[in-house]
Amino acid sequence: MIIFRMAPENCIGILSYNKINLTKRCVDSVITSGYEPDSVFLFHNGSQLKVREELQQKYPKINHKWDDENRGYSGGFNSTMKWVFNCGARSVLFLTNDTIVDSATLINCLKTEKKIDSGFIAPSIFYLKYPDKIDSSGGFFDNKRFTLSHYHDFPLPVYLEPGKDYIPGTALWMREDVFKVTGGMDELFHTYWEDADLSFRCHNSGIKMARSPEAKIFHGIGQTCHKKPVYTTFYFQRNRILFCRKYLKDIELKKAVEIIIIEIEGMKKKAIERSDQRKLDLISELEKLF
What we know:
By secondary structure, this protein is of the alpha/beta class.
């Protein structure tokens, strides 16, 4: 049974794929923080039936919906956001299920929105194991190494820098009008770099993106797809190539391709030494992109 209710003005959207204990921890943090159950929307992105059923039984008062197939992070994000906005919400605090939310996170995002009129906001994300240490306060595209990095320090400018900064997909706040203008994430990316691509498209559309330092999220690093190194390597490198081709030109693009090729050749050498045929097959797919 799918539970549908008209959404409050500002809601919580949680993306889940199996990992039932992580999802329980995330939902529990939201509920115990005082968020009303009807404002919580849990999207099951291809989770097993037994997982969905157990979560529905445990949390009957929150909203549940699912896809039978996992559509990757980007597809899961889009499905979650479309669902909540179609139910009438004006804004969504989006969380992956390996996070824990602070009781004032949504309130602080809304305060930031009101203060500086931003429709796309990065909360401060801290490590779950080290709650005083920052995982990210937004991220940036490193145009020297042609990869993505996080900002780990305060203070930082309120607004993210166009053409450089991005909001990590671990947790973010977004207003409905921003989602409609951008169409959400590009599902071609599937998983990895989709958040950077969305942010760059927001920059190019003139959408102001901001930080909300007081809005806190705690993140359990490495508890989802990071445990699948071959999967991680393939999608990260493939999407890195796609991103660079989309946003870089001429000499800068040529340099990026050269660096990425060198890194892939290094991975290939290690895979040969370890007789890792699965990784070699995926590297072969990456080489076809050049």
